[in-house]
Every structure is written in C-alpha cells, then in structure tokens.
Design brief:
This protein has one domain. It is globular. It is mainly alpha-helical. The longest helix has 21 residues.
C-alpha cells in the first residue's frame, strides 16, 4: 500500500490517528508550537501517546493522561501548570470545533497564533 493510502499512523503506537481531535500534531499546530511548513514532514501521533503534552488537557471528553517522571505536571510550578492547562485545553477544544467546520488549514490555530510563522 502506498504511504498516502495508509492514512496517518501514530509514530508511537502504530495505530491510525483517525480523528482531528486525537492528533498531537494538529494540537501542537493550533497552540502555536509547530510551524505549518513542517506539518507534512513531522511524525503524527495520538495526543494520548504524548503524555508530556496530553496531561495538560482538562476536558470532560478527554480521558486524563499521566506523565510519569520529571515532566509530570504535579512536579511543576503551579502557575505554569495552570497556564499550560488553559492553553492546551483551548487547543483541544479548537480541534473538536474544527472537526465540524470547513476551514483552510491556515485558520486552524487559536486566534493569537494565526500568522505566527508568516514570513
């Protein structure tokens, strides 16, 4: 099967990333962590397969993920954790919203990150 026919497979678990709101790649894009120029060359993974970021999603439709080790949010500064939870949760909510919209990819990011990487 051609690579383009396989869909987007998770770089961690190898299973398909079937829904936009399951995508760590697009979560990082909408919260300004990833330049759109590298979306097509950056490995995909499920959000849950990146616990260092997923632990910051606080949403009733997302099963909490623990990040064991030095980057466990319970070991981090409370103000940083609060700020990160706000941002990453907003990004997750944006992905859920995008699944129902028909927008160009440049409009995916949260408002404050649109055009961040424009040259």
């Amino acid at each position: 099967m051609a690579k383009c026919d396989e869909g987007y497979l998770c770089d961690v678990c190898g299973q398909p990333v079937e829904r936009l709101f399951e995508s760590d790649l697009y979560l990082r894009y909408v919260i300004g962590m990833l330049d759109p120029e590298v979306l097509h060359t950056t490995p995909e993974r499920h959000t849950k397969c990146n616990p260092a970021l997923a632990q910051f999603i606080v949403h009733e439709k997302f099963t909490p993920v623990e990040c064991v080790g030095d980057f466990d949010k319970r070991n981090l500064d409370a103000a940083f954790v609060h700020q990160r939870e706000q941002l990453v949760t907003r990004g997750y909510e944006r992905l859920r919203e995008l699944a129902r919209l028909d927008l160009p990819i440049v409009d995916y990011p949260l408002p404050e990150f649109r055009g961040k990487f424009a040259r």
